[in-house]
From TrEMBL:
Residues 75-250 form the Nephrocystin 3-like N-terminal domain. SUPFAM superfamilies: DPP6 N-terminal domain-like (SSF82171), P-loop containing nucleoside triphosphate hydrolases (SSF52540). Keywords: Repeat. It holds the Pfam family NPHP3_N. This is NACHT domain-containing protein. InterPro entries: GPIID_WHD, NPHP3-like_N, P-loop_NTPase. It comes from the Eukaryota. It comes from Imshaugia aleurites. Residues 366-435 form the GPI inositol-deacylase winged helix domain.
Length: 1262
């Protein structure tokens, strides 16, 4: 029995174990399936992000297939025998005059129609299918097409290459890091499609090196609008030699300038003659008509000798000959062979003109107009819809829809169908049909395209399409549906496209076509515009744009600006007698521009919000349209905290011309430090971010009068993984070059143990004419012409290190550079021995304005006690063996801050940032005199800009500093420098944040300047007689300080304004539609500096603390009342804290009130650099509102605390303290954060053992 029982138990146990294992395996399978689903969804999201707007993501394969289909198998073999291919792949010695990295990029150029695209397809097939030099996944390629907006820009190229790289790494199982980087960029962009060049290029450039050796083939580079940044990027990639690049194009001047120094190959007629002969023979023999013995040999002979090196000419002639029915017809064509591509195009047009009946000829004209003028290739259904709209506009009605074949064949061999879209057979067709210089032969002139008239036809058709299709919303706006439950289904978008195939194209491109119309047609355009948009279609059009392409906000904004400028620029002759149409045009553009600027982000995610937003302000000038058609009954006019949170405007009221218009696609934040240049001659602003990643440096441009801007110019030559801080910059005297010098170091250098500090010089060439028109399809306005990085630590962060010299030269740490040729005369190869010695440390250096000398300040750290610690300045000749000591000083708190243009005056300032100072010192080299330039008060300054003016008779100093914790800009003007300097004028401006010297531009008149302050606002500074700030906002001196807060229940909002001796509290109920605003005037104790007062409101807004005063706030029927008392002993503590910090530091005390209104703390985090001068401070008090009393709490905290912060528990009498502890004074050795809980009733402190990472994760979760 026992044995049987044991056997049964063992069997049951085994069965239980088996079931457990099975359950675990089942769960693992479920988890894996779930993970696969998540990964699949994420992969679809990535694929959509890298796909173009109107194509499948694999469209690059279709382009290769199209090119491959046109290639004869016996052609293009000659390319592999060329010596240049041997240089590219290292099979031949280096070409004379080229360097190794220049031989990793091969530029193949030829005349139009020579078969460059066919050659590209042969190269791709060779290196993916035949040659084993590269793995097939490591050959990346792209075919540019100028007639297609999705294939004619650098972003489209890199987007496709990155997708190919993504698929390649997936096949090899090395995709993890690339996928993570793409996901981060996708999430950061907030867009459904990658539209920003810089981030996707940075990812591609970083990861393509992981699959080396790799080959990139780029066809038709001349058809890429912004090829400059691509060329820069490919050059930088090819430096290693492991990544090879082959680019084909026409031989155009701008490409020759950029690629002429690289390996190049020109396709000549001799190169491809044998290919053409083989192609002709194969096609003739394969044609039932042309292979007839009576014409075969003659056709082959004539085409093999008349091609002039153009495959396209042969291709088109064969198509013409195949249409011949008789021998005499063939002989006639061969007897009068057209010369070149223009000749054959004339022949085709003449044949179409003579053979087509009137109706077909009209159809041919319309098809050519749309195919040539459309922004992108149109689907056949889109074109059929466009043709029907044309008939309606002309007052006609189509009895039946055009057949696909009718459209495809009506234009002969000029038009072809590729992947369902109608396209010209070659770019030269478009160039011929739209050329204003071409012969206007009467036999076919009606088939030529007038761009102005074509744009009119397309504009009217697009407006008609919008009017017909945008009559209702794509979502259900039934009032019974909760607003948060509204969804836009994909099926609704598809249904709209079925009903109106042209709707998406028309909605997003009508503005481009309108701005290309001739002004004489404006009456017709104006009529159609008003019929379309003086209706509900205005709002349904916005919804349609955001539904079709959610990431089109920037594109639409640019289009609205262009339309507004185009309309404003037309003279009265172009308008009807009444100006009403013109005014409506302008007001409508401004209203829609305001909507997209204010609510673009919201609309891109929820397009139907256009029907709910309160837009009264935007439509203030066309109120009639809004009141009649906007269905104002459903629109929110108030913000309800406890209900749906309506989108709110966040725009500033600053005029566009008085504010730098930040590019909204990226950057470190609107208030990030920048460098700023004003080109006064051309009325342009140039600026760029001061802190950059060298792999994506960029500069911006803006019209100083109108505020118009262009997309930023981007540099891709920089080394990935390095950061840079702009230290000096300048605009060349002729305004054609911007030079920027960056101090660079490796990212996370504190972990690497070394900054590896270097200096990078970038020179941008600016177009002679910067055009602000055509921003929807603008070309780059600047490009990098020089980039050089050198190792030097001589120049400090903001040391002037850019000097412009005569003859088109400039001087930077990289050397003396010639703009035109890019030649460089190095400096520091020969200077170190004369500049740096073993017993000194270089503190800073400056170039003289004549480019002859380098001024250096250094500290002696070796030698006798009399010499050790002494600072001195010396002048070193840059290109001669000469140097001299100018002056020395024992005070190590002084440093050489600047040198006058002639080198006569040296400016000495405080050596440490954030240190209080009372004066500057000016040393006259000629007289050896030292002058003191006193300030009006002791300044705790951070940065300064110095400018000598009026032949060095005056010195203007801009000092960015802090006074009692408030950022200020102090400007001093000293005159009579040569004899006895006199402070002529002084001005001070309070700011929300510090202004870097790089953000200040002194104008050429030397009596005014421009300064970039908060939110990139441009402020004028004048110092003709007295320093003044004409653009400074008016400040209510009665209440210079403000704080605001929403109560913890989200119902009330309070605003406190306080100043010298008084305060005002405003409170309102934000949950009500029109809640009343209650105001309460309060009296404060006298204070020298209101900014020094710590102020706070309790979470329930029932207690207010300002300095040492406590106010109990009661809200009744008649408004607000208060009862106040003072915290005992706090005034003395606050004064002691303030006195101890001044004048070297200022650490504002922060005030916190507990949720129960029973405790108040005052806290200052302190400085780890100088805890004696800026200690961590915390004062805690218990307060009683009933008895109006207080008592200080004795918090027994550990010594040597720094970085202290505190927060009250939301419901219990507990205080959470976070702090670090260290006996060291250097930041790197401060201990990790520690956390303690203080029980306020018993004053018990309990440390919590959390690591730094746990604290961080806990904060994230909370």
């Amino acid at each position: 029995m026992i044995e049987n029982r044991d056997r049964v138990e063992r069997a049951a146990l085994a069965e239980h174990i088996g079931q457990s294992k099975t359950a675990r395996l089942d769960q693992q399978l479920v988890n894996l399936k779930l993970l696969d689903v998540q990964n699949s969804a994420r992969e679809k999201e990535i694929t959509a992000w890298l796909a173009p707007a109107v194509y499948d993501v694999n469209y690059y394969r279709n382009d290769l297939a199209n090119a491959r289909a046109l290639r004869h198998e016996k052609t293009c073999k000659w390319i592999f025998e060329r010596e240049e291919m041997g240089h590219l792949f290292g099979d031949a010695p280096s070409a004379p005059g080229t360097r190794a990295h220049e031989e990793s990029l091969l530029w193949i150029y030829a005349q139009p129609g020579a078969g460059k695209t066919i050659l590209s397809s042969r190269l791709i097939d060779h290196y993916t299918l035949e040659d084993d030099s590269f793995q097939s996944e490591h050959v990346l390629y792209f075919f540019c097409k100028s007639t297609d907006a999705d294939k004619s820009n650098a972003t489209a190229v890199v987007r496709s290459l990155l997708y190919q790289l993504y698929k390649s790494t997936k096949a090899q199982g090395t995709q993890m890091t690339l996928t993570a980087d793409i996901e981060r960029a996708l999430d950061k962009s907030g867009k459904r499609q990658a539209v920003d060049f810089a981030p996707i290029w940075a990812i591609f450039a970083d990861h393509v090196k992981c699959i080396s050796p790799a080959l990139i083939i780029l066809d038709a580079l001349d058809e890429c609008q912004d090829s400059e940044q691509l060329i820069q990027g490919f050059k930088s990639l090819s430096f290693s030699g492991l990544i090879k690049v082959i680019a084909t194009s026409r031989k155009e001047a701008h490409l020759f300038t950029q690629l002429g120094s690289n390996l190049s190959l020109e396709i000549t007629a001799e190169d491809i003659n044998s290919d053409i002969v083989a192609y002709v023979e194969a096609k003739v023999l394969g044609s039932p008509r042309l292979s007839h013995s009576m014409v075969r040999d003659r056709v082959i002979a004539r085409l093999s000798t008349g091609h002039s090196g153009m495959f396209l000419w042969v291709y088109l002639m064969l198509k013409e000959l195949k249409s011949c029915f008789s021998m005499s017809h063939v002989q006639g064509v061969l007897a009068s062979l057209p010369t070149g591509l223009d000749g054959i195009y004339k022949s085709i047009l003449q044949r179409l003109r003579g053979n087509l009946p009137a109706a077909s000829l009209d159809l041919c004209c319309k098809v050519l107009t749309w195919v040539i003028s459309a922004i992108r290739p149109l689907q056949v259904d889109e074109l059929k819809h466009a043709l029907s709209l044309h008939h309606e506009i002309e007052g006609d009605t189509l009895l039946f829809e055009y057949a696909d074949k009718d459209i495809e064949l009506v234009c002969g061999s000029l038009i072809t169908v590729r992947q369902g879209t109608l396209q010209v057979i070659h770019l030269t067709v478009k160039e011929f049909l739209t050329s204003v210089h071409g012969p206007q032969d009467s036999t076919y002139s009606d088939l030529l395209i007038d761009p102005g008239k074509a744009s009119l036809h397309l504009t009217l058709a697009c407006l008609k399409c919008i009017k017909d299709s945008c009559k209702e919303s794509m979502v259900d706006l039934d009032p019974g549906i909760a607003r948060l439950d509204i969804k836009l289904d994909d099926e609704a978008i598809i249904q709209r496209q079925r009903q109106a195939p042209l709707a998406e194209y028309a909605s997003l491109t009508w503005m481009m076509h309108l701005t290309e119309c001739d002004g004489v047609h404006m009456i017709a355009v104006s009529k159609a515009f008003k019929e379309t948009f003086e209706s509900p279609s205005t709002f349904y059009w916005v919804e349609a744009c955001m539904a079709f392409q959610p990431d089109s906000v920037l594109r639409l904004l640019a289009g609205l600006e262009e339309v507004f400028e185009y309309v404003s620029g037309l003279g009265p002759d172009h308008w009807p007698e009444s100006e009403a149409s013109r005014v409506f045009f302008a007001d409508w553009c401004n209203a829609l521009r305001n909507i997209f600027e204010e609510y673009g982000s919201t609309l891109s995610h929820r397009p139907w919000e256009i029907h709910f937003l309160d837009l009264q302000t935007s439509f203030s000038r066309i109120r009639r349209l809004y009141e009649r058609f906007a269905d104002t009954a459903r629109r929110d006019t108030t913000l309800r905290i406890n209900d749906y949170d309506s989108p709110r405007s966040c725009r500033t009221e600053t005029q566009a011309c008085n504010q730098l218009q930040q590019d909204v696609r990226g950057g470190r934040g609107f208030n990030a430090s920048i460098f700023f240049i004003h080109d006064e001659r051309r009325g342009l602003y140039f600026w760029g971010e001061s802190h950059i990643d060298l792999a994506s440096a960029r500069i911006f441009v803006q019209n100083a009068v109108t505020g118009q801007r262009l997309p930023p110019a981007v540099n891709l030559v920089g080394e990935a993984g390095r950061e840079g801080y702009s230290s000096s910059y300048g605009l060349s005297p002729n305004g054609e070059y911007v030079v920027v010098v960056y101090n660079t170091h490796t990212k996370n250098w504190w972990n690497a143990g070394s900054m590896n500090r270097q200096s990078l010089t970038l020179i941008w060439q600016i177009n002679k004419e910067v055009r602000f028109k055509r921003r929807m399809r603008s070309e780059p306005w600047a490009r990098i012409v020089f980039s050089h990085q050198c190792e030097t630590e001589l120049f400090e962060t903001t040391a002037p290190s850019v000097v412009f010299l005569d003859g088109g030269y400039c001087l930077t740490p990289s050397g003396e550079i010639h703009f035109a040729s890019g030649s460089r005369r190095p400096l520091f190869d020969r200077l170190p021995n004369r500049v740096v010695s073993a017993d000194t440390t270089v503190l800073g250096s400056f170039f003289s304005q004549n480019g002859k000398y380098l001024f250096i300040s250094e500290m002696v750290h070796e030698g006798s006690s009399d010499v050790r610690g002494m600072c001195r300045a010396k002048r070193v000749a840059l290109f001669a063996e000469a140097s001299e000591s100018l002056c020395s000083w024992k005070d190590s708190s002084r440093r050489l801050a600047d040198v006058s243009p002639s080198g006569r005056f040296l400016v000495l300032s405080a050596a440490e940032l954030g240190v209080g100072d009372e004066a500057l010192y000016l040393y006259d080299v000629e007289t050896s005199k030292n002058f003191q330039l006193p300030f009006v008060e002791r300044l705790n300054y951070w940065e300064a800009k110095y400018r000598f003016v009026k032949d060095e008779m005056e010195l203007i100093v801009f000092i960015s500093c802090e006074i009692h914790g408030i950022s200020t800009m102090n400007i001093f003007v000293w005159s009579v420098l040569q004899s006895d300097p006199l402070l002529r004028s002084h001005g001070q401006l309070k700011l929300d944040h510090r202004i870097s010297p790089l953000q200040i531009h002194v104008n050429n008149d030397e009596s005014s300047a421009l300064m970039i302050s908060e939110n990139r606002v441009i402020q004028r500074v004048e110092f003709r007689t007295q320093v003044s700030f004409p653009d400074a906002p008016s400040v209510n001196d009665d209440y210079p300080c403000t704080i605001s807060q929403i109560s913890k229940d989200g119902v009330r909002w309070a605003l406190l304004k306080y100043g010298q001796g008084k305060a005002q509290l405003q409170m309102t109920d934000v949950s009500a539609a029109k809640g009343p605003i209650h105001r309460l005037e309060l009296e404060l104790s006298p204070c020298d500096e209101p900014h020094s007062l710590a102020a706070s409101l309790s979470p329930d807004l029932r207690v207010l603390v300002v300095g040492a005063q406590v106010f109990g706030i009661t809200e009744g029927v008649h408004g607000l009342t208060s009862a106040s008392f003072k915290i005992e002993g706090l005034l003395e503590l606050l004064e002691r804290h303030r006195t101890r910090l001044a004048p070297r530091h200022w650490c504002q005390l922060r005030c916190l009130i507990s949720p129960g209104n029973s405790h108040v703390i005052f806290i200052s985090p302190g400085s780890p650099h100088d805890r004696e001068a800026a200690p961590s401070t915390i004062y805690a008090f218990r307060i009683d509102l009933v008895s109006r009393s207080s008592a200080r709490l004795d918090l027994r905290l550990p010594k040597d605390l720094t970085y202290i912060s505190a927060d009250f528990h939301p419901s219990q009498n507990l205080l959470l303290l976070t702090y670090s502890s260290s006996s060291f004074k250097v930041l790197e050795e401060v201990s990790p954060p520690q956390v303690s809980i203080v029980e306020l009733e018993g004053l018990k402190m309990k440390p919590i053992g959390l690591s730094e990472g746990e604290i961080f994760m806990k904060c994230l979760k909370e």
